[in-house]
Amino acid sequence: MAEKEYAYFLGCITPNRYPGIEAATKKVFKEFGIETKEMIGASCCPAPGVFGSFDLHTWLPIAARNLAIAEEMDLEIYVTCNGCYGSLQEADHLLKHNERLRKKVNEVLGKIGREYKGKTKVNHSIVILHDVIGLDRIKEAVKKPMDDVNVAVHYGCHFLKPSEVRGHGSPERPYILEDLAHAIGAKTPYYKDKLMCCGAGGGVRSFDAPTSLEWTRQKIVNMIEAGCDCIMHPCAFCHLQLDRGQVEMQNLFGIEPKMPVLFATQLIGLAMGFSEKELGLDIHEVKMPEKLLK
């Protein structure tokens, strides 16, 4: 019997580009008694940094429709993308605190037989790992400790800010990913510009690839100089930039760092004894070294 059920908001990049993030998260969660229910009919979140900035009154009803689907399921939501987290959590926050906006959005939703009621909650998967499952249970589940692995922790932008909405403490001193990495035995060396964007956000990846990838290159170089073996992150969009971006760097700059990139549940899944194929790591652009698969 499941300890808890959540509605899983897949977003766009996870199912279309990196299904291993979905597979790993579901497998790890199931080991701890957490069941996933599919959100039938969910759309794009839609993207907060671009869509929400340009057209609040189109962005908000689309996000509210997704929230309403979870409300109809009588479940809280979890996500595996910081962009989805930012969009859905901020929409939920706005609608719960602004009656005028809520009324206007529900007038739109009413045309399709839906209503936002403010009954759900938007959770990030790494917060569920940290706060619901807990570090002690994760430590107990480890079969292959990552004692000799140095992990470059990357948070991405939308997980940390705006901090008053996110509720994870200071965005300058995050701790959740470090705690999770330490729970499986890994070390988390500090590296220069640790909290810097991956380089993709705000439409930069689509609009100006060389500038976008230069940010990514700098970040990965800093990780390598700090002695890191792999990247651990909480965001499907960051994953695309950090993983696929390394191949794109070869074309633009003539370098390919080959730094392995893993979503948090993929790295934890390896430590729990799941195989590379079960976690979808075999379809990443940057292949996993033997050190992680031992």
Brief overview:
This protein is α/β, with parallel strands linked by helices and 294 residues long.
Ordered list of secondary-structure elements with their pairings:
Layout: E1 4-9, H1 13-17, H2 19-31, E2 34-38, H3 48-54, H4 56-73, E3 77-79, H5 82-97, H6 99-110, E4 122-124, H7 125-133, H8 135-141, E5 151-153, H9 163-166, H10 176-183, H11 204-207, H12 209-225, E6 230-233, H13 236-253, E7 261-263, H14 264-271, H15 290-293
Parallel strand pairs: 1-2, 1-3, 3-4, 5-6, 6-7
Helix pairs in contact: 2-14, 3-4, 4-5, 4-6, 5-6, 7-8, 7-10, 12-13
- Approximate shape: globular
What CATH calls the topology of the largest domain is Rossmann fold
Strand content: 5-15%
Task: Name the helicity range.
Answer: 40-55%
CATH classification, class level of the largest domain = Alpha Beta
CATH architecture of the largest domain: 3-Layer(aba) Sandwich
SS elements, strand count = 7
Structural class estimated from helices and strands: alpha/beta
Would you identify the regions where 5 or more consecutive residues have pLDDT less than 50? Answer: none
Total helical segments: 15
Can you write the helix and strand succession as a string? EHHEHHEHHEHHEHHHHEHEHH
pLDDT averaged residue by residue: 93
Q: Order of strands in the sheet with the most strands?
A: 2-1-3-4
Q: Tell me about the biggest sheet?
A: 4 strands, parallel
| Overall radius of gyration | 19 Å
Overall structural domain count:
2
